[in-house]
Structure formats: structure tokens, C-alpha cells
Automatic annotation (TrEMBL), chains A, B:
Keywords: Amino-acid biosynthesis, Methionine biosynthesis, NADP, Oxidoreductase, Sodium, Threonine biosynthesis. This is Homoserine dehydrogenase. The keyword S-adenosyl-L-methionine does not apply. Belongs to the homoserine dehydrogenase family. It catalyses: L-homoserine + NAD(+) = L-aspartate 4-semialdehyde + NADH + H(+); L-homoserine + NADP(+) = L-aspartate 4-semialdehyde + NADPH + H(+). The lineage of its organism: Bacteria, Bacillati, Actinomycetota, Actinomycetes, Micrococcales. The active site is at residue 206. Pathway: Amino-acid biosynthesis; L-methionine biosynthesis via de novo pathway; L-homoserine from L-aspartate: step 3/3; Amino-acid biosynthesis; L-threonine biosynthesis; L-threonine from L-aspartate: step 3/5. Residues 355-432 form the ACT domain.
Amino acid sequence: MTDKRRLRVALLGAGSVGSQVAALLREHADELAERSGAELELAGIAVRNPDAPRNAELPRELMTTDAETLIVGSDIVIEVMGGLEPARSYVLQAINSGADIVTANKAMLATHGAEIFDAADQVGASVSYEAAVAAAIPIIRPLRDSLAGDRVNRIMGIVNGTTNYILDRMDREGADFGEVLADAQRLGYAEADPTADVEAYDAAQKAAILASLAFHTTVPLEAVHREGITGITKGMMDAARHAGYVIKLLAVCERLADRADGEAVSVRVYPALVPREHPLASVHGVNNAVFVEAAAAGNLMFYGAGAGGLQTASAVLGDVVSAARRHIAGGVGVGESARAHLPVVAIGEIVTRYQVTLEVDDQAGVLATVAGILSDGRVSIATVEQTVTEEGRARLVIGTHQAVEQDLNETVGRLATSGVVERVVSVLRVEGD
Amino acid sequence: MTDKRRLRVALLGAGSVGSQVAALLREHADELAERSGAELELAGIAVRNPDAPRNAELPRELMTTDAETLIVGSDIVIEVMGGLEPARSYVLQAINSGADIVTANKAMLATHGAEIFDAADQVGASVSYEAAVAAAIPIIRPLRDSLAGDRVNRIMGIVNGTTNYILDRMDREGADFGEVLADAQRLGYAEADPTADVEAYDAAQKAAILASLAFHTTVPLEAVHREGITGITKGMMDAARHAGYVIKLLAVCERLADRADGEAVSVRVYPALVPREHPLASVHGVNNAVFVEAAAAGNLMFYGAGAGGLQTASAVLGDVVSAARRHIAGGVGVGESARAHLPVVAIGEIVTRYQVTLEVDDQAGVLATVAGILSDGRVSIATVEQTVTEEGRARLVIGTHQAVEQDLNETVGRLATSGVVERVVSVLRVEGD
């Protein structure tokens, strides 16, 4: 096939992802042409510093510091520079100059997604972002295309490899958070400043993107409830294991269809107890997985490496092939701007199950008092286990039925000041059972 | 949005899948129009007997026995009647009359796929078949689109729910094959005649489809090596568990890149030992999962319900939305006819690990004799466990390193006639470690 159309591809960014994208574009040129129906010509690579050291050999003559000129006349613009600006401005410029966009930039999409999708829809451009969530694991395309005739009700995702690595090792080795974090930093699985991962800022961005797509609405990043894993102790891990659970940092996106005031969504990221037999419980190491509950399709899970330059580049290339096909076919992109604006409920309004661990005086009547306070607070007990601890005190591990978070919090507050509870050891949500 | 284009959709078949497709088309009409950019008008439903009882309420006036007339003028033809003919003829007619095809028919694709894809490519039609493998689990689209810029090296799939249900219960309950099969039949998980499932004809069709797509080649159904699960005993299950494995019916599709005579593929379906910690080992009940190893993306797994009318209908609807978008945009379908014709190697040529279980005389020197025969046959021992059985005999469980199947078979033949081996208890392949 020699009379293929030629498409100009502009690459913005040449970090760990960008350099791999450039390498794969050249290495697989023939297959990419075969599958996309177009010769993909890498027209240039916009970087801040052309002389910086790179992971892969990149032709020096393709490098430019002038992204804006590179974008002009490009058919496909791949944005893998990350960050909010100038990424957002370049993407908007590219859309308005007629290019299709492929991006791996979760921060930009979680923050400026609505603006970008609107701009794309106005000119009929496509914006693809498989690489923005869970690297090479296909999750954006399945949600957007495969489930286009279905209705997603809930997503539970392990979408941050660093925190899964830490929690997995804490679980399997009985190690401490700090100890494993230091190890992860040494091995390159965690940054020197691990805040974005361990405080779940990264997972919150991905949750906003997944929920927006799955529920065809716009979830602002600031509406995502976010709790990190720094408070998870060895003791909590051990207790979880004993009770048949494992603690995972979950991004939970939930459609709330039955509310009196109309449909709403809940989007939250926190460490939660997951039953050992749930498929998410066997996601180990730096792997990611996204569990999707759909009305007709039932339960699906997508699993794989959630990070890595090469893995992310694979997802980018898949999007590039689709963008090339679309660019040739003409017509308009898939379109994500026709979105609802479903309210995102506050964390106090969510309904889930909880495990409350209390240290109490080992006296007659204490359990009755605790049970009474729970019952008064509209928190129904599913399971309870009492063990006498070394100090002569007793430990109560209470599993609740479904309860409203606010009721649960108020009830735990009353327990704490009840006189019979020495200490609230932990309160954890239970997901996936 | 009121000025949407109207697309005529013809449905061929109203069985468990077709009736759900018809129901979802009506139920989700607004969302489907929103996501596809077209009003999808169900123009008619071709059935053999309009008066047969149906799972869902289908409008009697849409029913017709004249599929050929229905197809004329249709934009999208959904074929969910199953079987080879008249399905193949209708699909070819539809392609040549300008329709895009959505099908769930694995038998037809495994047998006549090349002919159908060629016909579609000649007129620029699209043929979508997400529902043909693993129901609602997105696997066709990820292989075709998400990994379009990558290179798939290997697929291991649990693609038959009935056999996974049987093997899973045998593993978890220590039950017998016959006992669990009878139960599965009672529960509707297995047919009255279970041959297609337990003899792996169904899995072989799916393996041919997956391998053809993943390696961009044409794998004829008759080139797929096929072994069913009827020979799997409680004893083999127990031994597998003891050794840290579980037995799963696997569809293995492998790219053989390093052969002296050029690239080839291996496509085989058989019960194999899978390490307990492998993600495929935790696929329980009637669920399916497909594990994909790609050069850049690394290891991915796709998991979910692999059967069911509603689940399959979800996959069909996703394809219908994509077909509608494409039909409106114009241009040509993805195109699968430009395929290589990679040779499919015979089962004797594959290379994998094996577990060989032998009953031997409990005498000095027997292990040395056995080890010598293995070594002479180019089969290298990785692990060996000897246990004395009740009858005064000994049992040898030998795990091999990678070996060529033909070498292994010849060696096992020599062991059987060596005089020191009383009985070859089992020979199982090991996959996924």
C-alpha cells in the first residue's frame, strides 16, 4: 500500500512517556500505517530543553522549543508534557487549528476537561486519553465505546500503583508504612516527595475523569472526596487480614439513582476494606485494576500495569491509530460535551458499610451500652467480635450494615465520649461485598 | 438534538441475546441516540417462528420470517441467530447491500471470518464482534484498537464459563467431574448435550478468533489444537492444589517470533496447570478472563461474565453505537482483510513446561533410571517430589523445565515401557509461570 495519506504528528513533551512514544512511532511505522490507513510522520517534538538527557534516542533535528509553530498544520497532536499550563493552551490551540488530540495528562483533564471537550466538540475534533488513567490498561475506551449501550452504576478502581505497592507489602510482610515507603522510594516506585500518591491527589484526578466519563457528567476535581493512606498502620492491616479483608486505596465512583431529589453521583478516594475473595484483593504490587458494575454487562474488571513510560506509550499509540482513522474518515469526534451536570454528593451523604474498632473497658454491660448508642444513631450491627487485650481492656471490632456516613460519624463521636469507650482505634469503610 | 440522522437497524435472531438486544434498543433509545449521533430505528426482527415464546416482550409487528427483504435498505444489521448458515449468507448479503455488521456469532467468524472480512473490506463496511468472545468483557476492541500501536505476544484466556464452573467447583469442593457436570446441567450452566463446552469446541472457536485478531493473521479453526476437560479427575485436581496450581481450561495463543523458518503462531486449547498466584487462578464460577501479554503494555487482564443474554446484548449494543458513528461519518471500516498467513505450528512443536506424574516401584535406583530417560529425551527436570503411596508403591511428581511437546511425549512413552514405571498417572502442561 503506497498511496496512503500522510498525517503530520506533533509530539509535545519528551519525558519518560514522550521518548517512548517517539521510539514506538518509528519502530512500528509500518504496522501503524497498516492499521491506521495513514503514514504517520513525526513532524517535531516540542521540549523545554533540546539538550536535556533522554531515555531513548531522539533525533535532535526534530526537537523544537516552539510548540506553537509545531502545532500549526499538524493533524494529530500528542500532549505528554503533563501539568496544567502550557499544556491546556497548546491543546486548545491544536483543537482550534484542526488537529485531533491524544493526551496522557490526567491533571489537565481533571481540571480543564469540560473546557477542552467543549472546544473539541465545537470543531468536531476528537480528544483521546486512554493513557491518562491506568496507563496501558484499556479503561477509557471500554467505558466510552464498549459500554456505550449499557449503564454504568459503579466503578471501584485501584488507580495508583505506588500506594498499592505500599499497602500490598504492608499486607504481605506485616511491614510498617514508613519502612515500605522508604523502600518504594529507593526502588523508584515512589517520588522523593510522595504527597501526590500517598495523599491520593493522583487517584482523585483519575476518579474525576472516570466518573465524568462513566456517568456522562462533569465531576469537578474539588468535588472528589480524598483521603490518603498515611494513617494506615500495621495494626489496621493485621486486623483487616484477621477479619478476611485487605486494605486498598480505592477510587469509588457511584451513581445514586434512587435519591428523592433526583439522580446524583458520589466520587471518593480512600483506603477501604476489600473482602479477600473480591477480584480487586488479588491486585498486587504496582498493578492497577478497575472494577466496573454495569446494568447489563454485569461486573467487569480491567487489570494491568498502571504506570511506566513504555506502558503509557502503548496506550498513547492505540489512541493515535484511532485518531488517524478518524482524521481520514472525517466526520466528528466522539463528543463528550453533551454532558449532564449531576450533583456530586458530600461525603456525609454516602451509604456504605463500616468497620469500627474500639478499645473499651472489659466490664459487664459495655457491649450493651455500645450497641445502644449505635442503634440510637441509626447504625445497625452486622458482626461484632470482642477480644480481651493484654492490658485487661477489651477490643470490639464492629462490622455495620449499610449506614449513612454522617450518622456513622456522629455515632462514633458519641461512642468516643460515652465513658465506656477508651479509644476509637479505627473507622474504615468496607467496599465490594 | 432533534435533527439527528435516522438509521435503520435490522435484527436477525430473537433468542436469548436477540430479545435482550431488542429490549435494550428501545429502553435506552435516548442514550443510544445521544452517544451514536443517530436515531436507531429497529426496522424488523427476522425469526424462524414469529409465534415462538420469547424472553422479552417483542412487538409482534416487527417480526418477519423474510430476513432477505429486511436486510435490503438497512444501515446496520445485527446477526445474533448463531450457526453457520443462513447466518453467513445473510451477513454477506448485508455487507454487499451497504450495511455495517454487528455479530455475536463465534462459529461463523471462526469458520468464515476471512471471507466475511474480505467482503467487508471490499465495500468499506465494518464488521464488529465484541459479543462473539467472552460476552460483555471488552476484549475484541482492546486487541483491535487499544493495542493497535503495540505487539501482542501471547494470550491466555478462560473463555468458556461452563468448563470454568465445573473445574472451579471440582477444585474448591474436591468434587468429581460427573457430579459437578450434572449439577451444572440442573442449574442451566451446561447444556443437556455438553459436548461443545466440555470438549472445548466452543473455546477453540474463540481461540481462533482471538489469535487471528491479535496476530493479524488467519487461523483456521481446524488448526487449533483442542483437548477438553472430561479426563480431569478429582485426583489430578488434588495433586494440582498440593503443588500450588489450579487446573483451568485455557485458550493459549502464542506468537513464535524466534523460529529459524520465520514467524509462526501456536493456538491451542487444553486444561493446564496455572500457578495459584496468577491472576487467572482467581477466576471463579462461570466468569471468563483473558490475559494478554503485549510488548509495550505489559500484562493486561480482562475479566467478567463470559455468557448470558443480557451481558452479550450489552456488547452488541456497544458495537451498534460504534457502527452507527462510523456509518454516519462515512469512510471505511477498520479493515481486517490485510492479514498475514502465518503458519500455525502443530502441537508437537510447542514449547512449555510440564508436570508428569508417575506411579513407580518403590525401589532403589528407580529415580535414577527415570531421570536418565528424561535427560536422554531432552527433558530437563525442574522439581521432583516422591511420596510413598499406600500400596507400597511410590508416586513421582516431576515438574519439567521448558521442553518441546514431541520430545516430552516420546520420553513419556519410553518411561511407560521402561519397566520401572507402573503407570503414567497424568501429563499436564503448565502455563503462566
